[in-house]
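QA checklist item 7 of 12: single-chain prediction sanity check.
[x] sequence parsed
[x] length recorded as 553
[x] structure emitted
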Amino acid sequence: MNATPQSVAVPDWPLPAALDLAARQYPDRVALDFLGATTTYRALADTVACAAATLAARGVRAGDRVAIALPNSPSHVVGFWAALRLGAVVVELNPTLGAAETARLIADSGARVVLAWAKTAADIAAASPESDVVPVDISRDLPRAKQWALRLPIRKARTQREALSGSFVAGGQTPHWHALVASTPPLPGDHPAPSPDDLAVLMYTGGTTGEPKAVMLRHRHLAVNAIQGRAWTGHDAVAPEVVYGVLPYFHAFGLQLCLVYATLVAATVVVLPKFDVATVLSAQRRRPGTFLPAVPPMLARLTQAARERGADLSSFRIAISGSMALPAETARAWEETTGGLVIEGYGMTETSPVALGSPLDERRRPGALGLPFPSTRIRVADPEDPTRDVAPGERGELLIAGPQVFDGYWNRPEETAQALLPGGWLRTGDIVTIDDDGFVTLVDRTKEIIVTGGFKVYPSQVEARLREMPQIADVAVVGMPAGDLGERVVAAIVLAKGVTSLDLPAVREWASTQLARYAVPRGLVVVTDLPRSAIGKVMRRMVREQLLATTPA
């Protein structure tokens, strides 16, 4: 049975201290493996010092915001640590967002510099002309042989080149990131370090209205959550772990476990720009993993592929599943295939992000959120009166308090006051029960959030975009069951006057210009009217029930 402490000490050091310590203690250990290109901890720290000086040369100072809109890559890792080393604030942005939405978030955060994926940098610069947009060609992070292969005049090379770099061509008005970093001397070692209480990251999340707002995470929030995770897993930097970075860094789950936590335990991170079964299995043959943070669909697809192809996943000792419910069958199949353990974790961006988890022993329960992390307190309260706790065993809203709980939303005092109660209690909006053993189980949501493939989709955001489509008079967006994906986004639409038909490809094309790929509807139903409440609000829950009743089993 895993002996997990009840509490942990809140660190008195800023996040970059974890990288500095790993570079001193394990300078020759591989920190990053990006499709075969390896970077040691010493080399990573050296590159970060040059990158920090590069940002400083572009006017970045302590407290300034630096936006990163990149896929997982060494460049993303370097940019993250470089901004924090200066005392700047990292603004994590989804690189698949449309340029207009990205520009809006850049303006909201006040980001001074934007490290943008080369394939989207020109569009972002055009949509955000006042920003200093630096293009980053992540193909420069590949091994030299693979960089050369991308230049070959063959279809496969063109496809891979487009996926990594788009149509970006170096030599424009703004030099690409790699050239800037390579030509800049390192930041002096005596440059002032940030404080543990300084703001470290702004990470956008939605709310009940779907309007994106930035969660403010300080160095101490992320650092203590990494320490809580280490207490939970028992990982020790002396015994090197190989963490598979398949979760995106712009997602709180991926940022914490595959970057911050991995650095704290001086792990080797196999960095993947996106989840792809074939790429994961290829990397597994080259550098077997030991620790896999993932969402259930990833686990299910890897298990199926391993069984079909005879791939060996037995090196994975621990998998952490989050962002959506872990089906018992998925958990059972993973453990049978790997011989390792898979546990479920629970949290929110506002909790840095992990707050609960199943134990890493025989007590684990697939489908349950688990037990509170060390130094984490929970309550189950009346959703209508969160000052009153419900009776033991009854359903109620989960409230969380602990050193990893955020301080508030960026420039949103009213929404901060709604989310945080006196005493530092965070309202999660999730309805749960607690059994006699202290295990928490999710039973319902108070927010109408759609969870698809581990990502949260806010219906009102999708609806707002679709209502701008001339052929649509009204729309309700709901989540429908989708197997291992959790839910799929489905739009129930009322056609505009004079419009007789509208197909899904047209709707998807319209929505994809401003929404992330996972938020674009995957289903379309034309209806004559939408159910509304007495005050005229569309009742999404009723829409979903009607669609479930009319959809063939």
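[x] summary fact logged: The chain has a mean pLDDT of 91.
[ ] second reviewer sign-off
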